[in-house]
From TrEMBL:
InterPro entries, sorted: HAD-like_sf (IPR036412), HAD-SF_hydro_IA (IPR006439), HAD-SF_hydro_IA_REG-2-like (IPR011949), HAD-SF_hydro_IA_REG-2-like_cap (IPR044924), HAD_sf (IPR023214)
Originating species: Escallonia rubra
Protein name listed in UniProt: Haloacid dehalogenase-like hydrolase domain-containing protein 3
Signal peptide (UniProt feature, chain positions): none
Length: 252
């Protein structure tokens, strides 16, 4: 008997599982700088600066400033300004405001993202099978309200409910975010739920800790995948393979 016969709900991670970033971070920061007549920032310095700034903001104001009631745009403005400063670019206020406006609007649109070709078919297939489909993501409200619908992944067509850290105030790997998902699904039992993601730490371990089934996607052939398998995790290359696994007799 295949595992799908025992499931009532599937939850999925978003970035790396359903969608991916297009190009490099530097591409978008370069376009923003050029739009106001500035030279292109150095890609490597910009990438490193952003990593440091984002990590600091996530520690100081987790879940995109949820607990501090920090407006989303202020969280990102602080993060982007610090990214430039750490990369060695300290623009005057008027210049930065113009650059930031371009960056914020770009990352609040479908432009920097692409949808994996198997994402929409898999989500629609799961819902057609009668499963409740939920998204669990460390992301802010624009994923739910703007970005995913613009990418053709809409609530009511491809997914039923979303649990986004910037809206809930809880983020992966905290198991509580998975408990919220189970409640939102209609108090479906964890053993009747499967979570699909691309991170052992943020997806697999916390989902399993609350009693859910879990599997990992290795879309980019990460070196960690071998250790995932050795630890007993089911690791598959994509959602086409996940669909086959769900309906196979070996998935029980």
């Amino acid at each position: 008997m295949s595992i799908i016969t025992r499931l009532r709900c599937i939850t999925l991670d978003v970035t790396g599982t359903l969608i991916a970033y297009k190009g490099e971070l530097g591409d978008y920061y370069c376009m923003a700088a050029k739009s106001v007549g500035l030279p292109c920032p150095d890609y490597k310095r910009m990438h490193e600066g952003f990593k440091l700034a984002y990590t600091n903001m996530a520690k100081q104001h987790p879940c995109f400033g949820f607990a501090d009631k920090m407006p989303n745009i202020i969280w990102w403005k602080t993060c982007v300004r610090d990214s430039f400063i750490k990369a060695g670019y300290d623009y005057d206020e008027e210049t930065f405001e113009k650059v930031f406006k371009r960056i914020y609007s770009t990352f609040g649109s479908a432009a920097p993202y692409s949808v994996f070709s198997d994402a929409q078919p898999f989500l629609r297939w799961a819902r057609k099978k009668g499963l409740t489909v939920g998204l669990v993501s460390n992301a802010e409200y624009r994923y739910q309200d703007v970005i995913l619908p613009a990418l053709g992944l809409s609530q009511g067509l491809e997914w039923d409910f979303g649990v986004f850290s910037g809206i809930e105030g809880v983020e992966k790997p905290d198991p509580k975010i998975y408990e919220i998902a189970l409640a939102r699904a209609g108090d479906i039992a964890p053993e009747e739920t499967l979570h699909i993601g691309d991170s052992m730490r943020k997806d697999y371990v916390p989902a399993k800790s609350v009693g859910m089934h879990a599997l990992l996607l290795d879309r980019f052939k990460t070196p960690d995948a071998e250790s995932w398998r050795e630890s007993g995790a089911t690791v598959l290359p994509d959602l086409v393979a996940a669909q086959e696994w769900l309906t196979s007799e070996q998935s029980t």
